[in-house]
Amino acid sequence: MSTLSLPKVLSSLVMHIEPLLASAAEYQLGEQVTLIPSSQEWIEVSTPSCVKKVGFEQACSTQPIDYVFQDQWVSSEIDLSQIKAQILKRSDVVVCGLPVDGGYLDLWHHDGDVRGCFSVELGNATQQRAMLLVALALDYPLEDALVLARAYAQSTQMGIWPTERDAFPDIVCANFSKLSDIGWQFECQPVEAFAPVDSEKLTLYPVVDSVQWVKLLLELDVKTTQLRIKDPNAQGLEQDVAQAIALGQQANAQVFINDYWQLAIEHGAFGVHLGQEDLAVADLNAIQQANLRLGISTHGYYEILRAMAFNPSYIALGHIYPTTTKQMPSLPQGVHRLKLYQQLIGNTFPTVAIGGIDLSRVPVVWKTGVSSVAVVRAITQSSEPAIAVEQLNQCLSEREVMYDN
Length: 405
Known about the structure:
With 405 residues, the protein is of the alpha/beta class. Helices cover 34% and strands 21% of the residues. A 9-stranded mixed β-sheet has the order 2-1-3-4-5-6-7-8-9. An 8-stranded parallel β-barrel has the order 10-11-12-13-14-15-16-17, surrounded by 5 helices.
């Protein structure tokens, strides 16, 4: 069980926190959270994974604080570069509602850099704080808590979990249209929308680690697959990538290459799949201009919003269940959070659920409304891959029946 210890000075937040916790419990978004009054000056957020001390600027303690939220601004004369420098020096500082030209910024430290999101309207400050604390208590990472909080600040209904894209902020990235307006310098260049996938071919999406598996799957009439070779120094890497691409072309299938976007461009791949960390280093314009499709991995609200800004061919949502095929920096999302992510994206982009999904889990994942289900071990560790593919395809053909029940 998680706890949220709230000092008396912030008691006005309770009117929003309690219905938000009830909403989260109804959605089954995580461990049950107990709200506890506190005589301390700071807020203590205790979850199964960590304990965080949180303070707001005007009520900060002399005790060490994990996050210090600065959300009170008396002047509109703000030097953004100085604020960013402050955040780089102190990773515990989180800036909320910073006034800039045309709106407001939330800013935070991430892996030696400053990230941000932008909202035209500031919204209700009490609602923003309440959702921020609730999200942290539910073990959402800071960046997810911040975008959820800004979305809830726009709400006119108490305790309703944000689901509409229009309520959420825009992510500050190369494709953010107001970069120059707010004075944010970005090294990367904006990129046009990527070519679409054939959604009818996207339903079953095996991810495999060898060209031999790609060949077998295409022979089994699988129409979309991904070659994911983890070792960039693997012998014969380029040859395998080129062969997988050629096999996909011969089968009129959608073969994606994970990570190796230069080789994918060179050999004319159908598409590439990139992680979040790749978005800052890969030449997205070169990928787009080569007419390659782009899939992007995401692990929560912030990364979904960031991926949407780049207009990819599809968005991967994961990892849904614990997985042993890849080291994951995030916690398993679970199908209840997956359903809300799908609501956020809607029909704007095709979606692929990935991570620890086997045949027994496909029905509940499929019912969330995702466009596709990615599997790894469900096929590669099966003694009869052909039967596994047949069973998975059969399961994925039953969505309409499941929705009718």
